[in-house]
Amino acid sequence: MSFKMNQDMNNGIGERIQSKWPSKFYDQERYVFQSIRPGDRIFVGTGCGEPQYLVSSLLKFAQSQPKSFMDAELMNIVTLGVAAYTDEKFKENFRLNSFFIGDSTRKAVNQGNADYTPVFLSQLPGLILSERIPIDVALIQTTHPDEDGNMNLGVSVDIVRAAIDKARIVIAQPNSFMPAVDGDGWIDMDDVDYIIPRDEPLLEYIEDAPGDIAQNIGRYVAAIVEDGSTIQVGYGSIPNAVVSSLQGKRNLGVHTELLNDGIASLIEKGVVDNSQKGINPGKSIATFCMGRRGTFDFLRDNSRIEFRTIDYTNNPLIISQNRRMTAINSALEVDLTGQVSAESLGHTFYSGVGGQADFMRGAALAPGGKSIVALPSTARKIGNNPSARGPVISRIVPFLSEGAAVTLTRGDVHYVVTEYGIAYLHGKSIRERAMDLITIAHPDFRMWLIEEARRLHLIYQDQEFIPGIKGEYPADLEIIKTTSKGLKLLLRPVKISDEPMLKDFFYSLSDESMYQRFISARRDIPHELLQKFVVVDYFHKMILVAVMQDKGKDIICGLGQYGLNSDSYTADVALVVRDDCQNRGIAGELLSYLTYLAKRQGILGFTAEVLAGNDPVFRLFKRMGFIVSKKNAEGVFEMLAMFK
């Protein structure tokens, strides 16, 4: 039996459309909900696409007629609503089974009052279509039908399309606030059984404004993202800060699961033009949107954007067809071997598998692709009660907490970024990874991480470390320079994790260069000596490295250092440049920057021991304006170079 809708209920849907499909339209939801059977599995649309009116009406019906249906299973990817169906009063009627845990369902899942199904979201449509995950009823939200009965799923396509195809009953809530989006979201009257129109603002996902920590992380990630990259970003304030840091990039593309406010802004400003994508050029591809109303309006009939089903957007083989695919996701915990947990804190379920692994692996397979994990260095501890906040803990840990899920394996991650810098892990040993990650951990936890890494035999047993502010890496001293010969360099203080690169640098030097540097014929540079270069008390010593790119890899092409002389306001200086990089202006840039740093520290000049015959050193200092004097002592000149 169908019921003609009165004018108050039609919410702007013309009588002509209603009269064309009279059996679809209902003005009394109870007649629709009476078709739900005990034990049915009821799918609810995702995130901002959740049909709020249908869900609230279903709960009212269950409350007014508690015996009408029992033991129903409510299923969704994630809800932004209040999830009232997890309340105790509905326990006989509903049990939630979620594929991704949100704020409103976390407590119920961890108290055993709701279920969580861990699964790659790319696999969900296949599981639904094969009926391994059966769906009996689908509650969806759409645009208003047009004269031909066509409707659009709007901001949520993901697994909704598969749910529509397999559900016994499909109940749609047309809503004028829902924008039509090109792609796989089009359905027609034959796809739905009941239509209950109701106009209401869509649920909005409003992320916290990025703080200083998030903005610092965003700037580091932006340094990794190349012009022409295709990007994917995950959830939360960190990815949002990353997106806002990409404003200066050019010719970016978008292939993502989630389209948020930040990505919409990049598209609107022309930063994203999708001109260099390997697949779907000219189009930003996503599967759902979680954002503000302004973003929903931006999506409406926007020909530059397509929403595809999640088995397409999240398929690693599709993702990998985009050149320079760059996946940017956050995490809860990273251990010193490179394992990442993004879904649980120990035994506490926090979010879900989601699409992170799909995108990180797709990016790793793509030509020039990059997988980036971005996270703050610390967090507040969460105990058995997920809403309880405890003391500050490190997010970089020796090993993942007991019970923590391994969302990304050691082979999935290229970069880890915190507010303290960038750790590149891909292709590195466990020892190298551990040292890289310790350098970007919060300074308060670095000594603990060193001690634990020693105990677990992850690093050298004699690994030295300077705790406190004296040993804290001065990232603000990093600077980009171009030499007089046109060579682009990164000049920066040496890091404790630079030992492998510095080893390669020293062993690349000729016998003559080694002799000039050490004033000895030694050829070996063992770990014990290398530590003297990378473990630095930055208050009393400065060691700079000149880093350049060679075939996509960072190499050290020059090194300059000074150490304070205790008996005068001078510092002992030394410079060395790779043989194949000499006469390209590197030594001059190193000396110039060392001079600037020394003057800032109140130093009046440099001293050095220079072998007889090494005239280029004297010429360099004089050319750069030093007042140079020298004293010969058995074939070695003691040079004094004072600042003007």
Could you explain how this protein is built, in words?
α7 (212-224) packs across α8 (237-244), α8 packs parallel to α9 (261-268) and α9 crosses α10 (293-299). The termini are far apart. This protein is 26% helix and 24% strand. The chain is α/β, with parallel strands linked by helices. Mean pLDDT is 91; it is low at 1-9.
Instruction: Determine Rg (CA atoms, Å).
Output: 31 Å
CATH homologous group name of the largest domain: Acetyl-CoA hydrolase/transferase C-terminal domain
Which percent range describes the beta-strand content? 15-25%
Predict the CATH topology of the largest domain: Glutaconate Coenzyme A-transferase
Number of helices: 20
Which CATH class of the largest domain? Alpha Beta
**In the residues, how many domains can be counted?**
3
What's a quick, concise take on this entry?
The chain has 20 helices and 35 strands.
SSE topology sketch:
Blueprint: H1 15-20, H2 29-33, E1 41-44, H3 52-64, E2 72-76, E3 94-98, H4 106-110, E4 115-116, H5 124-129, E5 137-142, E6 151-152, H6 160-166, E7 169-174, E8 182-183, E9 186-187, E10 194-195, H7 212-224, E11 230-233, H8 237-244, E12 253-254, E13 258-259, H9 261-268, E14 284-286, E15 288-289, H10 293-299, E16 305-307, H11 310-313, H12 316-319, E17 325-329, E18 333-335, E19 340-341, E20 344-345, E21 348-349, H13 356-365, E22 370-374, E23 378-382, E24 389-394, E25 396-397, E26 415-418, E27 421-424, H14 430-439, H15 443-455, E28 479-482, E29 488-493, H16 499-508, H17 511-518, H18 527-534, E30 541-550, E31 553-564, E32 570-577, H19 586-600, E33 605-611, H20 615-623, E34 627-633, E35 636-642
Parallel strand pairs: 1-2, 1-5, 2-3, 3-4, 5-7, 7-10, 8-16, 11-12, 11-17, 13-15, 14-16, 17-22, 18-25, 22-26, 32-33
Antiparallel strand pairs: 6-9, 18-19, 20-21, 23-24, 26-27, 28-29, 29-30, 30-31, 31-32, 33-35, 34-35
